[in-house]
Write a structure and sequence with these properties.
The complex is a heterotrimer of chains A (679), B (176) and C (149). Chain A has 19 helices and 10 strands. By secondary structure, chain B is α/β, with parallel strands linked by helices. In chain B, α3 links the parallel β3 and β4. In chain B, α3 crosses α6. Chain C is an all-alpha fold and 149 residues long. Chain C contains 5 helices and no strands. In chain C, α2 packs across α3. The chains are: A alpha+beta (679), B alpha/beta (176), C mainly alpha (149). At the A-C interface, α12, α13, β1, β7 and β9 of A face α1 and α5 of C.
């Protein structure tokens, strides 16, 4: 019964998405306020409610393990812990698509309720586009991936006890990425809406920005968590493999990062209009492309997902409809949108343009490297493109981009002179050169890690320079966001370069009592013991590791054998120290009473993920700052207007000239209308 | 921005759509074909994989007689599936030489006892060295070796009923 | 499953586990469980000379495991990857140049086995396109900034 209600809610939501699309389309075409136009926002809200209900119904059938529902029978099990029963609801193709479309519908409802900054007609176009995108996903669900399908005869027991999937990281990692993808779909709807009405304005950029920022934060967290998960789960010490599935999540992030910066230029300076629209379309294309690559199984990946060529066909058709459609619209319309304000290269916008072009170039490289094997396979040639390609070719674009990132935030908007920040540039250049020389002289480090370490050192300083000479309490939160995010990039880069340059590896066959050395650590295999878990047995190696005469730390990696389905996995153990991680894995028996043990000492490897989290934190701060500004603008209009007057002279303070930032610029150029919304 | 450049993204997308659509319509080819087909069999000299049969060396090929070289292992499940068809091939006159990958003699003997023995000789390749040398990427695979000791054909995966006449034909061609 | 609940869960688990062990022995589990030989000597053992090991390691990180899904041989538990690591280490130890080892494998498996694309008739776009991107990026900067400067 609940399942049927869920299905009915899904159909209703789809119908409302249809209504939203048609009403939006007709009223945009009519060009005047019609009765139909009044239906759009309510339709979006109710659509969100029904989609939410539908997803709750799915959670419910999973919670009670209703084995007459096919999806439950094939992916769940009565004996699973409740949290994995619930996460099992989206741990499969159908459920994850329902989660996706639900979040999309809720996001649509949210913009329908709160977004009041844009002209009515643009808003109608945005919601029509949003409904149209959602409609495709509803069709996908209802026509080919019905999550509520019943079995003719209820199953006796569920089949989904796969222990490998009972992992808290795996349960929450994919939804994080979906939230990012959905955020980009909203940005896409905004872009399409603005393209239809040709209203590409700073107000449009401000309406779109929180969605881009939000999506970007989720993607950042998702990629960071995914990388850490692969690092400890795959058991060979690698944290990024340039695998197609990883690239599929990286590409939307790259596009979102570019979009994030260009939307800020548009919001602050009314420039880069066409470019921002283009990136809005590209960012969502990359999410859909990623979904397509992952679900269709068209590329071989180590993180294989439930693949199905038929679903692949459906997603490809959706891709053609939305992306092809949007690009067609873009080709037809973009020439009628003016470029916006011009600016000099020595300006904040100039630096951001370099950033955008470089990010797009990196995106193009990743896209090329990921899709190239697909292209050659069409000619029956199989090639592999891996880290030895992506790392150096990517670096050609990453390193200049990071150099520009160091100085860009120091430049003023519109027009500036490099001579004005010559002191800062000399300091940063000196740090870079000294670091390069020092590291090259002291250590035997390969070129890329060497550059990475030096650039990271320089960026660490550079990321805080925008704060120099300012009262820290008066720095807008959004500026803190930028500082923290840029610092996070430096931290992550340092971790990556350090891991690549200084990792020590020790593969050893040890008998109990034997000791081996990895880096500074002496690791002793004390004993080998069998261990039994709820659905596995394991060989556990009891290791103790110490530096010199220091206190030993105990590490207990296991080689686990699961029985349903039969599978052998290595449970690695990580011992985290302030300056790195000791990584231990149990291998097989060497056959002579000794056991294979794999050990790594990875200096500062954790900074990779701390850096990622800092980047995400920067994004969160930026959102808080923007939303707070918007709220302030709305509630205390008058005072805001006064403050605006006050701020003009303040902006001109000589000591503050160089550190003038987007938030200030925003407030200055924002036309604060009473209906200014929270987002 | 001028007109034609705005169409570039759409064109690129159309290109991607074409390739992806084409690839989706094709059966996914997971096979990694050996580049050694058409070339001389690489040198090897393998000890017997089981006590009942002789081992095999590359020098034994090239005596004018074409043979099938079957790469297999007792631990490989598809090898069980192809066993009856190997026997068919053998019954129809194909001389079959086996190379057992990473296998113990007792396991090989048990497999042959249980699933039949179509081989005239089975060599043991404990470190997959020969497998790498002839460009095989898994088990089972079957190569056709002509009378001059050249590799003329590679069959990837287990031999099905329909593959039997194909392999016989390839073997006949190799003998000509 | 529910019908079995009155029995002690531990006993049930043990019984199932024994059954599973039997199954694995007789049928051969899909992954690693089936192989009877221990890994090749140098599959999981480093070369004694750290310089040679470093060379081997760098090469292994760029060779693709042939029976895995998109993994380099030094990231893989597959026995075949282990044998290939053995082969690489032995060859490096015997003084062979790493690129000669790569060439030897590519002679057998084509471009697929190497994660480092070599410039060839099949892979040239991988190198030409980045150059084009560089040119386009340069052109964008030129158009945007240089003309008015």
């Amino acid at each position: 019964m609940i399942a049927e209600l869920g299905l009915a809610a899904l159909w209703l939501a789809a119908a409302l998405a249809g209504l939203q699309t048609i009403a939006g389309f007709l009223s945009v075409r009519a060009g005047t306020t019609t009765e139909l136009g009044g239906l759009i926002r309510p339709a979006a809200v109710v659509q969100g409610v029904f989609a939410g209900l539908s997803f709750c119904a799915l959670l419910y059938v999973f919670a009670i393990t209703d084995l007459s529902v096919k999806l439950v029978a094939s992916h769940s099990h009565a004996l699973k812990p409740m949290v994995f029963k619930l996460s099992g609801a989206w741990g499969n193709h159908e459920g994850s698509m329902l989660l996706w479309v639900t979040v999309m519908a809720l996001a649509g409802a949210l913009i329908a309720v709160v977004e009041r900054r844009l002209p009515d007609r643009t808003m109608q176009a945005v919601l029509a586009a949003q409904g149209f995108v959602a409609l495709g996903f509803y069709a996908f669900l209802l026509l080919s991936s019905n999550p509520f399908e019943r079995l003719p005869i209820p199953a006796a027991e569920g089949m989904g006890l796969n222990p490998l999937l009972q992992d808290i990281g795996l349960a929450f990692h994919p939804p994080t990425l979906y939230f990012g993808y959905v955020g980009l779909s909203i940005a896409f709807s905004f872009a399409v809406g603005a393209l239809i009405t040709r209203e590409v304005t700073p107000a449009f950029a401000r309406a779109m920005r929180p969605w881009v920022l939000g999506a970007w934060v989720f993607l950042t967290v998702g990629i960071t968590a995914g990388s850490y998960w692969a690092y400890y789960e795959l058991g060979w010490g690698g944290w990024w493999f340039w695998d197609p599935v990883e690239n599929a999540s990286l590409m939307p992030w790259l596009a979102a990062t570019a979009l994030l910066h260009s939307v800020s230029v548009l919001a602050a300076r009314d420039a880069l209009r066409v470019w921002t629209i283009m990136l809005g379309v590209v960012a969502f294309s990359m999410s859909m492309l990623g979904t397509f690559l992952v679900r269709s199984g068209i590329l071989t990946s180590v993180h294989s997902f439930a693949v199905d060529p038929e679903r692949g066909t459906f997603i490809l058709l959706l891709l053609a409809l939305y992306i092809g459609g949007a690009l067609l619209l873009f080709a037809l319309r973009a020439s009628t949108i003016s470029e916006g304000k011009r600016f000099a290269i020595a300006s904040r916008e100039g630096a951001l343009v370099v950033n955008n072009v470089m990010l797009s170039a990196i995106l193009a490289i990743v896209l090329l490297g990921t899709l190239y094997p697909l292209l050659t396979e069409a000619f029956d040639i199989r090639v592999s493109v891996g880290p030895p390609y992506f790392n150096p070719v990517g670096a050609i674009f990453v390193i200049p981009m990071l150099l520009v990132m160091a100085v860009g935030p120091l430049l003023r908007w519109r027009e500036d002179r490099f001579a004005r920040i010559s002191r800062e540039m000399i300091v940063l250049g000196a740090i870079l050169v000294v670091a390069l020389v020092l590291i090259a002289v002291l250590g035997d480090v390969a070129l890329l890690p060497l550059l990475g370490l030096a650039v990271a050192a320089m960026l660490t300083v550079a990321s805080f320079l925008p704060l120099r000479g300012r009262k820290l309490t008066r720095v807008p939160i959004a500026t803190w966001g930028m500082v923290v995010a840029h610092f996070g990039i430096a931290v992550a880069l340092f971790g990556m370069a350090s891991e690549s340059a200084f990792t020590k590896e020790r593969l050893a066959a040890l008998a109990p009592g034997d000791t081996t050395q990895v880096g500074q650590w002496a690791v002793t295999l004390d004993a080998i013991v069998p261990v039994a878990g709820p659905n596995w047995t394991a060989i556990e190696g009891q290791l103790s590791a110490r530096i010199g005469d220091g206190e030993p730390i105990s590490m207990r990696p296991q080689s686990r054998t699961f029985w349903a389905p039969p599978q052998v996995t290595a449970e690695s153990v990580l011992a985290t120290r302030w300056n790195g991680q000791l990584y231990a894995v149990m291998g097989e028996s060497a056959g002579d009473g000794r056991w294979q043990v794999r050990l790594w000492w990875k200096p500062f490897v954790t900074l990779i993920w701390y850096g990622g989290l800092l980047v995400a934190l920067g994004g969160v701060l930026a959102i808080i700052g923007r939303v707070r500004d918007d709220l302030k603008n709305r509630s205390v209009l008058r005072r805001a207007a006064e403050r605006r007057e006050d701020m003009r002279p303040e902006d001109m303070r000589p000591e503050d000239m160089g550190s003038e930032d987007m938030a200030y610029e925003d407030m200055r150029s924002e036309d604060m209308r009473p209906e200014e919304s929270a987002l | 921005m001028s007109g034609w450049r705005l169409w570039v993204p759409l064109l690129m997308f159309a290109g991607f759509f074409g390739v992806a659509g084409y690839q989706l319509s094709q059966p996914k080819n997971e096979f990694i074909e050996s580049r050694m087909v058409g070339r001389e069999l690489p040198y090897f000299d393998l000890r017997p994989a089981t006590t009942d049969l002789p081992g095999i060396a590359s020098a034994q090929f090239g005596d004018g007689q074409p043979r099938l070289l079957n790469i297999w292992a007792s631990w490989c499940v598809p090898c069980i599936a192809e066993a009856p068809y190997l026997e068919q091939l053998q019954e129809q006159g194909a001389p079959i030489v086996g190379i057992a990958i990473r296998d113990r003699p007792e396991d090989v003997a048990r497999f042959l006892e249980r699933h039949g023995n179509p081989y005239v000789a089975v060599g043991a390749d404990d470190l997959s060295e020969v497998q790498f040398a002839i460009g095989s990427s898994g088990v089972p695979e079957t190569f056709v070796i002509d009378g001059q000791g050249r590799i003329t054909h590679q069959h990837i995966g287990d031999i099905r009923e329909t593959d039997v006449p194909v392999l016989l034909e390839k073997l006949r061609e190799a003998g000509a | 499953m529910t019908a079995l609940r009155p029995f002690s869960a531990a006993a049930l688990r043990q019984a199932l586990m024994a059954l599973m062990a039997l199954l694995m022995l007789s049928l051969g589990a899909p992954l690693l469980a089936q192989q009877s030989l221990p890994p090749a000597p140098y599959a999981n053992r480093q070369l004694d000379d750290p310089a040679q090991e470093a060379i081997a390691h760098e090469l292994m990180a760029t060779l693709r495991c042939l029976e895995c899904q998109s993994q380099a041989i030094n990231d893989s538990d597959s026995p075949m990857a282990g044998d290939m690591r053995h082969q690489v280490r032995i060859s490096v130890a015997s003084g062979e140049h790493p690129e000669a080892i790569r060439a030897w494998l590519m002679e057998r498996y084509g471009d697929y086995v190497s994660y480092t694309p070599q410039v060839s008739a099949t892979t040239w776009p991988l190198f030409v396109v980045p150059l084009l991107i560089l040119l386009v990026a340069g052109a964008i900067f030129w158009r945007r900034f240089a003309r008015r400067a």
